[in-house]
Structures are given as structure tokens and as C-alpha cells.
Amino acid sequence: MYNTKCFSVLLMLLVFVVPIFVSETLAGNSEDVAVSAIDRAEATMVSAYDAVLEAEQAGADVSDLLVRLNDAGGLLAEAHIAYGLGNFDQAVSLASLCSEMGEAIKTDAEELRLETHGPWVMRLWFTLTSSLVGVAVVVFAGFFGWGYVRKRYVRKVLEMKVEVSEGDEH
Q1: What φ, ψ does residue 37 adopt, rounded to 5°?
Q2: Three state DSSP letters for 69-111
Q3: Helix, strand, coil tally for the chain in percent (to 5)
Q4: How many H-runs (helices) and E-runs (strands) does the chain carry?
Q5: Left (φ > 0), alpha (ψ -120 to 50) or beta: where does 86 sit?
Q6: Which fold has domain 2-118?
Q7: Phi/psi class of residue 60: alpha, beta or left (left: φ > 0; alpha: ψ in -120 to 50)?
Q8: Buried b / exposed e along 113-128 (16+ C-beta atoms within 10 A)
Q9: pLDDT band for position 43 (cuts 50, 70, 90)
């Protein structure tokens, strides 16, 4: 009977103590997941910001992307606040949403940069080609013009040639 009482007391103690240790373990695990999600969201935001910057440098209109980037930054700030308050599930949820928005922004910025970059490359090729054609025309016109001027000059010089007659040998 003593063994049964002892077993019952230990079982009750175990039932009351186990949730404390389990919640601490799960809280630590949730905290790690939240930190990982926030770090991933921060890295995504940095890459999205870089993509928007490249699109802007290419000459694209990035005003819509900047608004969306600002909204995603707000979600990241809310995730940090939720993490600081100990609400790890909400922090993970907000950080994941921020990561999704950041990836979408990055993709849109890269597409916009390529759309803006395409006509610029075509203009560059057109300018290069027209410059080369212009130089070739000037060079050929110079050669033909020089040949014409030289022939005319030689003919004019030959017309001005002084002829010495036999009686004027002085």
C-alpha cells in the first residue's frame, strides 16, 4: 500500500511538473523558430531593397515597389515587436508574410529592370551602329574627295607648266 501511495504521489507530481518543463522546451523551440523566421525576413528585405535599387538605377519607375517595400518593412517591424513581447507564433507569422512580400517585390523589381534595360540596350546598339556607319561614310568620302582634288590639282599644275622654246635658252 505504501508503494501505491508513493507511486500516486509521484504520478501527481509528475503530472503537475511536466507541463512546466514541456512549455519551457516548446517556448525555447518557438523562440528559435521565430528568430530564424525574422532573420530570413530581414535577408529577404535586404535583397528586395537591392533589386529595387538596381531597377531604379536602370531608369525604371519604382514608386509602387517602394510603397510595397515600406509595407513589408512594417510587417518586419511588427514581427520584431511580437518577438519582444514573447508572442513567437505571431512573430513567425508576420516574418513569413514579410518574406513572401519581399520575394514578390524582388521578382517584380527584376522584371521591371529587365523591361527598362531592354530598350536602353537597343538604343545603345542603334547609336553604335549609326556611329560606325557615319565614320565609314566620312572615311570613304574623304578618300574619294582627296582623289578628285588631287587629280584636279595635277591637271591644273600641268596646264601651268612653262614650256621652254629653243630660241630662249638663256
Answers
A1: -65, -40
A2: HHHHHHHHHHHHHHHHHCCHHHHHHHHHHHHHHHHHHHHHHHH
A3: 90, 0, 10
A4: 3, 0
A5: left
A6: Butyryl-CoA Dehydrogenase, subunit A; domain 3 (1.20.140)
A7: beta
A8: beebeeeeeeeeeeee
A9: very high
| CA 147 to mean position of chain CA atoms | 55
pLDDT at 23: 46
Residue 60, amino acid: A
Residue type, 113: R
Q: What's the pLDDT tens digit per position in 13-25?
A: 555 555 555 444 4
- Predicted TM-score (pTM) of the model is 0.57
User: Cell match 537591392: residue?
Assistant: 50
